[in-house]
Amino acid sequence: MTGGTRHVGHNVGVIDDQSPPTRAQRARALVSRTVEDAQLARPRLALGSMVLLCLMILGGSLMPVPYVIERPGPAIDVLGEYEDEQILTIDGAETHPTDGELMMTTVSVDGGPGYRVTPVEVVASWFDRTQAVMPREAVFPEGQTRQETVLTNSVAMSTSQQGAVAVALDELGIEYEPVVMVSGVEQDGPADGTLEGGDVILSVNGSTATDVAGYQELVRGTEDGQDVDVRVRRGDEEIDLEVPAETVDGSSRMGVVLSPGYDFPMDVHLSVGEIGGPSAGMMFSLSVYDELTPGALTEGRQIAGTGTIDADGAVGPIGGIRQKMVGAHESGAEYFLAPSENCDEVVGYEPEGLDVVAVSDFEGAVEATESIAQDGDTEGLPSCDEVVDQTDQTEENS
User: Fold this and answer.
1) ∠ Cα 336 338 343 (to 5°)
2) Is-contact 290 296, C-beta < 8 A?
3) Helix/strand/coil for 323
4) What are the tens digits of pLDDT across the range 327-353?
5) How far is residue 75 CA from its own chain's centroid?
6) Cα–Cα distance for residue pair 151/156, rounded to 1 Å
7) Can you give the pTM of this predicted structure?
8) Rounded distance, CA 164 to CA 284, Å?
9) Is-contact 267 91, C-beta < 8 A?
10) Strand residue runs (E) in 131-223
């Protein structure tokens, strides 16, 4: 009987499972399935949200931002070679052996036209004293293209080199003549492949002018559809060329930048590859002066520096001086010549082991270089601390 009772009980249980569920049972079952589905969906939702968040963070970190980052660039000995080519060559004048190094300094700029930087790079640079982050418009004009940037830098470098040579020759009492020259050629412009940077303009459409504005007017006067006849001096050769003029707003143009230049009594060539800008002017002048004077100006020492150079020999301020000091120190320089007008950016940022001297003109740069060469230190030479103190005192008294 016991066994029968178990059997019946079992059968009763089976019959109960197959009977229609009551309303209460259906409600409980629905709640149970809803809870189970929610429990299963929760980890999938969390995982999907995390993946989406990661993608958003990754996308944001790679999205370009309107900033530029200045980093230390290499310091290059103007008396030596760059990219397997001698930087400074002088033909047609007596030159003298040099020793040591006169180093132009550079800055690597990321984020200019045609390039980009990401938020990750910007944030990392904020925490690096050797780098500087600035809004792009503070460095490059709004809307400027990569090609325009290359042309602008090329023109600035060409003009700087011409002025640097002139200042060195002025110091030596060597005369030269002013000319109008091609300082840059627009890529894919009308004159690309015909005119070259460094060409001296002798005439346009058979007429001569005395300055840049005069030659620009002669070009603009070319009739629509006609070529511009240009006679140039390239090296020792005079060449007649035709440039297919491009008409813009009713005026003809050749797609070149004309600048004041000089006809020197010797051929001075400075080659620094694609490096552009005007800030190496002072170091170019010192290097030309060194090669044209007896004895080594540096007497074997490693001297770096930066600064524009004006026609009257004034040394002007430049950008990125903190990065340039770091680059000079990393390249082995022991001394650094800094424009006096940059001294407020120098104080407190001098790399350990780099002695900085403030200079305001070419004559002062020569004197500082000769003093360093002779004494091996900067004692008695103007420092940026002194320049800043004098400026602060002047402002207090005014």
Assistant:
1) 125
2) yes
3) helix
4) 999 999 999 999 999 999 999 999 999
5) 14
6) 9
7) 0.80
8) 6
9) yes
10) 132-135, 177-185, 200-204
